[in-house]
Amino acid sequence: MTPSIRYVGLDVHKHYVMVGAVDQTQQTVLPPRKVALTDLQSWAEKYLRPTDHVVLEATTNAWYVHDLLEPLVERVVVAHPPQVKLIAAAMVKTDKKDTMTLARLLAVNLIPTVWVPPVHVRDLRALLAHRRRLVSQQTQCKNRLQSVLHRNHIVPPEGKLYHPDRRDWWLGLELVAGDKLRVRQELVMLDQLDTLIDETSDELYRLSLSEPWLEQLPYLIQLPGIGALTAMVILSAVGDIQRFPSAKKLVGYAGLGARIHASGLTFHTGGITKQGRRELRAALVEAAWVTVRVDPTWREQFERLEQRIGRRKAIVAIARKLLVVVWHLLYHRRVDRQADPERVVRYFLAWGRQAKAFARLGLKASEFARQQLDLLGIGQDLPTLITFGVTYRLPPSSLPLPAEAHPPASA
Fold first, then answer.
1. Are residues 218 and 321 located together in one domain of the fold?
2. Would you list the DSSP string of 241-268?
3. How far from chain centre, in Å, is Cα 330?
4. Structural domain containing residue 222
């Protein structure tokens, strides 16, 4: 006789997991019990069955539990916490009730699931989050130094205020003893954070030269405003682009879609939803500012929007349009229609230098750039490039020249 399917709910906490299960008729087959997180593996191997379906909410340690249980059961589902709360709102909330609610929702197929990223995507997300925290701490240090100047009515000199060359100026300020101490310690922290951020960025650049990122990055870096680090943020958030069947789905995932209220005779739209991956939304807005500064076509669109809806809403609209382009480039693996080979090769040269392609891949920046151009299928007839007074001689392309680039045959 085939064993019946059990639907197992897990309420995961920092040090323990509450476990309970129901069958297909919603009858309790495993009363709620508390299992220490350190004992979860031995408990699961003893009590879980290969036919079980398991559900847990997405929390800090959800992926650890997911990976632990996945080989032992038929299916592990990770639930979207806010959407579960909307479905199963209750006035009385306990660990036991939460566990059984999850199990019952799974039994009737009402669990709003989240995508389970593979390990390499999780690792990249964690590294990028670490870098964001370091940058945030760096900004806080700078703000505290600014507050010292403001409180003491000191007008700073022109130029880069936090550059290492300005350390003597900071230390030479006439301040009370407490403020002198604060300034000195803030400068020490700034120096340390600069080193840590550079080290983390270097690791991200190293990853950009490894698969699966190396194959995907050229499609993003060809766009104005998207450098290697921004591209890594986008790829880490998106994961597998094939899970977004349309650009609209990706825009919604980033929280850049408009709010809509449609009920009866009432219909109106509002600002963006801001429901989605915050780091993806922030990266697109930051990239949009750079794009409208360096690209005439995008700047023209921005200026038209700015006149109609204002500067802040206009840049968000550009970010949304940029994300739509990103979807098309990644989903269809194609070159941007507005790509200028000379401009794109500059982006690839910068990426190769920043990522130390010569040390890591044994490729000169020009050789690395040629590889990426060939991946996109552009720039076959581009032999040299002059940028910032330096002439780069690109190796011959491995692709045939486009038809219009071939010289006419002699009569």
1. yes
2. GGG-SSHHHHHHHTT-SEEEEEETTEEE
3. 15
4. 214-332
Give the relative orientation of helices 228-238 and 213-221 as an angle to the nearest 10 degrees.
120
Amino acid found at 143? N
Number of structural domains, the chain?
4
Same domain, yes or no: 101 and 153: no
175 vs 2: CA distance, rounded Å: 80
Question: DSSP for 271-323?
Answer: EE---S-HHHHHHHHHHHHHHHHH-HHHHHHHHHHHHHH-HHHHHHHHHHHHH
Predicted confidence (pLDDT) per residue in 135-178, tens digit: 999 999 999 999 999 999 999 988 899 999 999 999 999 999 99
The token duo for 11 is 């309420």
Dihedral sign (CA 183, 136, 294, 379): positive
Q: In this structure, what token pair is assigned to residue 223?
A: 């766009």
Taking the CA atoms of 59, 60, 61 and 63 in sequence, report the sign of the dihedral they define. positive
Could you tell me the pTM of the whole model? Answer: 0.88
pLDDT band for position 223 (cuts 50, 70, 90): very high
Q: Six-digit token pair at 182?
A: 């604060």
Alpha-carbon torsion, ordered 153, 157, 158, 160, to 10 deg? -100
- Positive or negative: CA dihedral 52, 57, 58, 60: negative
Q: Distance between CA 173 and CA 186 in Å, rounded?
A: 14
Q: Is 118:167 a contact under the CB 8 Å cutoff?
A: no
Q: CA-to-CA distance for 104 and 325, rounded, in angstroms? A: 41
Task: Give the total residue count for the chain.
Answer: 411
Q: Is 353 within a domain?
A: no
- Among 320, 344, 312, 97, smallest CA distance to 219 is for 344
CA distances from 151 to 22, 127, 394 (A): 63, 37, 55
